[in-house]
Design brief:
A: Beta Polymerase, domain 2; 2 domains; 10 strands; B: mainly alpha
């Protein structure tokens, strides 16, 4: 038997549109039930199920041909999805191709947001769950552990994770360039819309603690403040309180300027030595553009942030070739190690080994 | 292996180490990678050790603190800056400060070594055998070391400030510390430098009051002007007048002025004698 007994099967953002991925996505309950079902498939020696918002993937070691098709059938049946339709959106790789794919997924090379590191944790979680259920053996244990090592290697030796590629995270990065640690900074969110909320959450995820929300509709500000664990503030108080904040995220739907130059001048007279950072995410813009001329005031609007995010994305894309070469080298070496095991397993010589192998 | 080296040979070795620090940092930045702090600190530490040995040999040869000519003053200033870097760098962990300090030390030491005329002669007995005057000079030059580091943090502040205002925070700029941290450390360095220089002038003034003719008016004028300028910068910063970019420029320009003032100050001293430039480690 050849290497076809290591396989990956699934659908990702590369192969399936969002509407299809929504239908294929698995919640916690469905994941557990499917796991139990797959464990019952004769000939599926090992498997791991990776389910994120952008992918559902089954990594398996099959003892016989046709096992991958059985996995596909079980999945489609559970999701009430036609197997024939699934094949239009299917990702199906075997042998070294499957191995290379796992390494690229773990390193963030296959992610929608190129180089993001969240996927590393998601793969680790998926592998941990499979291991806890006894669904992995000698082959997948080795493959996943090597995938984690390879991802770390790529992160350390290339610039694939350098610079953020989302507007909210770029804004947070800029704030750290100005203030260093965000723990002691005070942040004001103007407007209670979705983009403001997302940015506020990005700040919180990077250690910002003192967050206030001001909206023309106080009840909406209070609602969002409760969600974020922040303080709510009447909108009219903003010019008076401006000096008390270090970072102001502006995301209102106002049609006129919300933060005037006069208000900023007055605020800076009260805090001349401390920088004030405006992140203007609104369209039309909330902050008078001339405030950027003031010493110690920094103003970035949506276009500025998007341009930086694009530059970061381009820089990451320029690293793809280097990353892929590093991963291919490791995937080839790993394939040479596991191929004999797969052949031995296929010939009936191997048994399922649920022990974790040393890396 | 090194026992027979002269003071200048030790100082050449030190300068080369600082140069390696500069090259390592530049290489990392050009490759777009965060520099290895461990490597930079290792070469700086090696350079510092060689410089201590070089200054020790020179100090033993001249029988006191080696501050008798422009060469020695620049060497001592670089040594002070590196000494402070070990405290500031460890305490505040400012990214790239090691690279910038190494660059400054390399510039000061290499330039001073490359111009033999600066070390051809030196003033003997400049302290008149008075330990207080020696303390005055050492404190003054140590404050110059602090101001050197201040010039570096100010320069880093200006670069970071420029990158943020021009909305190009990526590339090598991304490795710089935050402007808040740089401003914070710059204020502290300025306060420390002014304190040291004040102490130095206080010690020196006691001696001067006893014998006003003992100090050349040129030296007095330039030294007092530098002290007043730094003290004024500190006062204005604390009152919220000299801020951000202007404070950064003040840190850089005042250090340039302080370095330039060394020439008239040095030239105004007593007649020189040949320098003991080839001494080796005493056995």
């Amino acid at each position: 038997m050849n290497g076809e007994n290591l396989f990956v099967l699934g659908a990702t953002h590369h192969t399936a549109p969002l509407a299809v991925r929504e239908r294929l996505s698995l919640d916690a309950g469905a994941t557990e039930a499917l796991r139990a079902e797959l464990a019952g498939i004769a000939g599926l020696r090992e498997f791991t199920l990776l389910s994120t918002c952008n992918r559902v993937e089954f990594y398996g070691v099959a003892a016989a041909p046709g096992v991958a098709a059985e996995v596909q059938q079980a999945f489609c049946t559970r999701q009430k999805f036609s197997s024939t339709e699934f094949e239009q959106f299917r990702l199906s790789l075997t042998g070294p191709g499957a191995l290379q794919h796992l390494l690229e997924v773990t390193a963030g090379l296959d992610s929608q947001m190129l180089g993001e590191t969240e996927i590393f944790g998601q793969v680790k979680e998926a592998y941990g769950a499979a291991q806890a259920h006894g669904h992995t053996g000698a082959v997948l244990n080795r493959v996943f552990q090597k995938a984690f090592q390879a991802a770390k290697h790529v992160r350390t030796h290339t610039a694939i994770t350098e610079g953020h590629v989302s507007v909210a995270n770029v804004a947070v990065d800029l704030a750290t360039n100005i203030f260093g640690s965000l723990a002691q900074t005070r942040i004001l969110l103007l407007g209670a819309g979705e983009i403001g909320e997302k940015t506020a959450k990005a700040f919180q995820s990077r250690g910002a603690a003192a967050l206030s929300v001001a909206s023309r509709r106080l009840e909406r500000a209070m609602e969002l403040a409760e969600t974020l664990g922040a303080f709510a503030m009447p909108f009219w108080l903003m010019p008076v309180k401006l000096a008390e904040f270090d970072i102001v995220v502006c995301a209102t739907s106002a049609t006129e300027t919300v933060v005037s130059r006069a208000a900023v001048e007055a605020a800076m007279r009260r805090r001349p030595a401390r920088p004030l950072f405006f992140i203007d995410l609104a369209l039309p813009r909330d902050v008078d553009a001339s405030v950027a001329e003031r010493e110690n005031v920094f103003l970035y609007n949506l276009d500025d942030l998007a341009r930086i995010a694009d530059e970061n994305r381009a820089a990451r894309e320029a690293e793809i070739g280097k990353c892929r070469a590093l991963l291919t080298e490791r995937a080839d070496a790993l394939w040479r190690q596991i191929e004999p095991r797969l052949q031995a397993g296929a010939a009936g010589e191997g048994t399922v080994d649920h022990r974790t192998e040393p890396a | 292996m090194f026992a027979g080296l002269t003071d200048r040979s030790w100082l050449w070795l030190a300068a080369e180490c600082y140069l390696v620090g500069l090259l390592l940092g530049t290489f990392s930045l050009l490759r777009g990678h965060r520099q290895s702090g461990a490597w930079i600190n290792t070469v700086i530490a090696a350079g510092y050790l060689f410089q201590v040995l070089g200054l020790y040999v020179r100090g033993r040869a001249v029988g006191g603190c080696p501050l008798g000519n422009t060469f020695e003053i620049l060497q001592f200033t670089a040594w002070s800056a590196i000494t402070l870097y070990f405290f500031v760098g460890v305490t505040f962990r400012l990214s790239l400060l090691g690279f910038f300090t190494s660059s400054l030390a390399a510039a000061l030491t290499l330039v001073s070594l490359s111009i033999p005329a600066w070390d051809a002669t030196r003033r003997e007995h400049i302290f008149g055998g008075n330990a207080w005057i020696e303390l005055h000079a050492a404190l003054a030059l140590f404050s110059y070391g602090v101001f050197a580091l201040l010039a570096l943090t100010s320069g880093m502040f200006l670069l970071r400030h420029y990158s943020l205002k021009s909305k190009h925070p990526g590339g090598a700029f991304s490795f710089l510390p935050s402007i808040f941290d740089l401003d914070h450390i710059s204020v502290r360095l300025l306060a420390a430098g002014v304190t040291l220089m004040t102490a130095s002038l206080a010690v020196g003034s006691v001696y001067w009051l006893r014998d006003t003719a003992s100090v050349n008016p040129t030296k007095l004028l330039f030294t007092a002007a530098i002290w007043v300028a730094y003290a004024a910068a500190l006062g204005l910063r604390l009152r919220g007048v000299l801020l951000a970019r202007r404070f950064g420029w003040a840190g850089v320009l005042l250090f340039a002025a302080a370095l330039l003032s060394l020439w008239p100050v040095d030239a105004s001293r007593h007649s020189p004698i040949p320098s003991p430039a080839t001494r080796t480690v005493p056995r």
